[in-house]
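Hello,

Our lab assistant flagged a job as stuck in the queue for most of the afternoon. It eventually completed. Since we weren't sure the result was trustworthy after the delay, we are filing this so someone can double-check. Below is the sequence as submitted and the structure that was eventually returned. Let us know if re-running is recommended.
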Amino acid sequence: MEGKRIMKTNILYQHGTLALLVPGLLTGTITMKELLQHGDTGIGTGEGLDGELIILDGIPYQADSLGNVKVVKDDFIMPFANANFADFKFLTTLKDATPAKFATVALQEKENANTFFAVQVKGIFSYVKTRAVVKSFPPFDTLEATAQKQSIFEAHNIEGTLISYYSPSLFHGAAVAGFHNHFLAADHSIGGHVLDFKIASGKLSRQLFDTLEQHLPITNKEFMDHNFAKDNIADVISKAE
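-- returned structure --
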């Protein structure tokens, strides 16, 4: 007898790694339908770095390189994504907050954290700068080369949601050490990977995870055969992200 699926809010699910993007292993290896079995909140990118994803309340949005924001279908495929079932706990209200202040508050004034957590900020952003990469096609180039073909978007005094995933430095390569931020405007006029922001006023909530569920694309021959020892993973991820 099939029971009701339990939504475990202590688990951060990750498909793929940022390391596999470095040499250009950009083939989509999970569908959005599959990813949403593991969370109603998340971020990621499409095959060939096709735009930037932000999942809110179970709805997956894609911000593409033309500045469009749209809901993607179940068959949308991704090489990398994070997802979790939302259980954010309110911490504080931020005012006139830079990325540095945001980080200080989210880390609760510590220099770093040794566990994964997600941060959600809902409010008014006096400034936000995002990017979305132009979709590439096989044969894929490296992450560094592909990420140079990106579009930059800016907005002022806009309502929206910032979703951020924090990774401990120990896991740099599997993810990006520190904060990985995506944004979606309430009116869907702008979204994407966040390059800079300032929060005019917003409510910051946080969700801690005690478990990282790392899912790898073992049916993808390119991934299984690739020798990552030859890749400058840490430096390339730091530059690209």
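-- support follow-up --
The delay was a queue issue, not a problem with the job. The result is valid. The two ends are 45 Å apart (CA to CA). Helices lie at 18-21, 32-35, 99-106, 143-147, 221-225, 233-240.
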